[in-house]
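Field: COMPLEX_INPUT
Field: COMPONENT_COUNT = two
Field: RESIDUE_TOTAL = 1035
Field: MODE = joint
Values follow.
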Amino acid sequence: MIGLPGSLSSIRGRETLARAQALKRTWPVVMDLCIAAIGLACFYGVVRIAHYWLGQAEPAIVISLSPRALPLYAFYSVVRIGLAYAISLIFAVGYGYIAAHSRRLEPLMVAGLDICQSIPVLSFLPGVMLAMVALFPTRQVGVELGAILLIFTGEVWNMAFSFYSSIKSIPRELNEAATIYRFSRWQRLWQLELPYGAIGLVWNSMVSVAGGWFFLMACEMFVLGSRDFRLPGLGSYLQTAASNNDSRAIVWGLAVMIGIIVAIDQLIWRPAIAWSNKFKFEQVEGVAQSRSPLLHLLTHSGALHSLQRHTLAPISDKIYCSLAERRARRMVRTDGVAASATGNWLRWVIAAILIAGVVYLASQAVALLRAVTTPQFWAVMRGAGATFLRVNVSLAIAACWTIPVGVAIGFNPRLARIAQPLAQIAASVPATALFPIILLALIRVGGGMGIASILLMLIGTQWYILFNVIAGAMAIPSDLREVAQLFHFTTIQRWRTVILPGIFPFLITGMVTASGGAWNASIIAEYFHLNNQTLQTVGLGAQISSATDHGQFQLLLLATVVMALMVVTINRMVWRPLFRLSETRFKLEG
Amino acid sequence: MQTPIIRAEKVEKYYAQPSENRIQVIAPTDLEIVEGQIVALLGPSGSGKSTLLRMLTGLSVPSAGQVYWHEKPVATTDVNVSIVFQSFALFPWLSVLENVEAPLKARGMEQGERRRRSLAILDTVGLDGFQAAYPKELSGGMRQRVGFARALVVEPEVLFMDEPFSALDVLTAENLRSELLELWQKKTIPTKAIFLVTHNIEEAVLLADRIIVLGRNPGRIRTDFCVHLAQPRDRKGVAFSQLMDYIYKVLTQPEEQPPDLPQTLNGEDRPPRKYQMLPHARPGGLAGLLELLRDHGGRYDMSQLADDLLFEIDHLLPIVDAAQLLGFLNVNEGTAVITDAGREYADSEISRRRDLFREAATNRVLLLDQIVRAIEAKSDHTVSEDLFHDLLDEQFTEEETVLQLETAVSWGRYAQLFDFDASRRCFTRMEKRRSQAPSNTESVA
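Field: COMPLEX_OUTPUT
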């Protein structure tokens, strides 16, 4: 055995370094009881949901406005969000994995991500609902699945992109180490790719779920002509309360909603962020570590540990053993892959089927589009122009107040500590839930739908800009600000030379996200049912919603296509060059 | 003569260009690794030594030629090798024990046996007690020990190391080197051969039984010889210094092809000319080097220069190459000798130096001369960077082309040959700021 020089051997006994200390259990019985209680609660929840979903389909939902019904409605909403998130996560990991590893499919899948992120999700609501109800005509689960599917469509793309880009940015030497030590694809996924992408996935999950609430509320309020697809939940509760002018119910509904958001933040996101610190790819232990009592509970529970030791560990061992044996028989290297002839043949057949399917559907869509008349077409174009103006106006208004406020918060750490949690809560409340209430108030004051729609877009999307500006202001190195102070820069000079260029990359990121969110919001914002009357204004979103209402599917398709095209074009022509500018000229480090 | 464990036969690595040019990173090379040897692969950066290592281990496939493992092609056999990386390549979310166990897990070993072997190897490298620590908590030297433990736990037949000690401080590197030697000599590890890639000449001479020196552009073996000094080797000994001198000589051999004389751009039929590879040095360092030479009597032995300045060869060679390219010094037999032009440079003050630099650059560096002529030839006196990017692309890889252009920009700006507009990415004429004064008076820039 090699003896260490004297100075190092004194460290060997130091227990502060060894994690063995951290495994010392405190309060063992209490923790196990807590875990048991949580498990029991989850089990009851599952039983209850199953009972409801598999029950008879209710033709007309009656939303009770009594506060006693709120916990149940909140529970239903949370379950829908949770399921949609779980499905999104699994799909996103799968999609990102395939896109990163398949050289042939990669450009197609990444372009698909780009486009799917720009498509307005809510314009698919009628189609998806009708399809799901047709699948399960007599059971409640059809409508529920429709809502979940829609939320999934909105959430999955940015998580998929995050996982894909984190796989692509794994340092070369880690990849080489995995190859040279004969990691199987399974081991590589669990020991390299998922941990490396964990932090990105956690943060993107937070953003996705916030967006998911937005769509969920819209789904719960959904009425298609004479068919009522509303679901019992927080969204429909708030809408019914606003329709009946019941301010007590409104207050209760809002309180429960904020309570749920805060609870999810504390019980799920904070522990997740604290846990994801473990995967930070940095060389030195960071100074500020987020702590979470729930995480502590879960990691130090004896019951969970012994469960893992007796079930997961032996199973995982068996998997690795069989994978190693399979590898010994296969003998394939990563670069020179010897694909079997039958594998290739099968791949071609699948590709042919998929291409045939795509061509068929595309031709059907074109046939449908032919049914659009010329005045309808021009109406859609006019609407597109109007919505475009509205989106830009809302972006401009948002920028006007978020930039100064964001910079002030970012430069002042004390203010940041107070303001950030408040802003986070305000940002998490889905704008769609607030919309009936705001509309009601505006009508009383005498405003029109045009102003209301801009307001809704603002509420939904200004937070993206605010948070990004705060992050950008915090990222400006203090010596640049000191230079401005030292040479007595005037305010205008300070803004033009230091602040605006400094926050530019972050501002652009925020504005891109806000712009996409505003387009999506326009579908609800420009056309709304309230109190048995329909309020609408000229715009593309209104076109989509009214086409949905009147069952004019060709108009719906045209308007959706136009919106998707506009978003993608603006992305390419405006945002991408700005991004490039921010990467070259406005990047802070060399 | 024992059969070699790994044998590379005419392995070549090139990148095909769309213009049907090939950028050769490694010229066709033959290499053998036999049992019982520590082989060191030395070379300046850009000589393709890491690429060669990856081809030998089977991580990357050669563009041409074959690598054989016990006379079987390496792509179809399960080679038993390990690599120790420069940046340690540990998984930060796994503990030390889990990091070391990972290769055993990949081989399907069951848990008890895995744990036993990993703890034993951790003991061997001196990390007893740290098995539950995370890499974040360890120093650089300890992390590399974990890297070694992970590499050795699978009992590889050949141990490959890619600049394993260059990310560590001098003392820790020294420590680890001697421990590695001890493990090798006492046969504590069943490894049959070690292949070390490094740019540190002293390290190579200290450790290796056989040294291979690579040249660059394209990467090829310049020399391959055995070291017969007995261990432990004396750094101050005569034989040691002679070996180091010899290696310096090989590394600073002048390029075979002399630089071209400048000709007109829109010229007659000429065979395509080769651009000199601009060394990645900034002009500022030149003055310092030449002054040193001048004060040392005009001659300075290269290895002694590196020693006195505490420079790594990687940092010294580019500046020396740059000075040689511009004709300010010559290198003969591992000794740098200042030329008359260099002496004049060292003796002048700033603006005269600039003029001398400018003259030398235009006369000797094809790329700079071409840029100046192109700027003069155009009516608006601006030339896009893309033009030269395409020209250089045929000779260098994409990465190298970008570096060559950056170096050309910094030299051109220093010599006031031209200016570069970074936002428009084009070369422009230098603004005439100085008054037209006769050259023998000092003018303020």
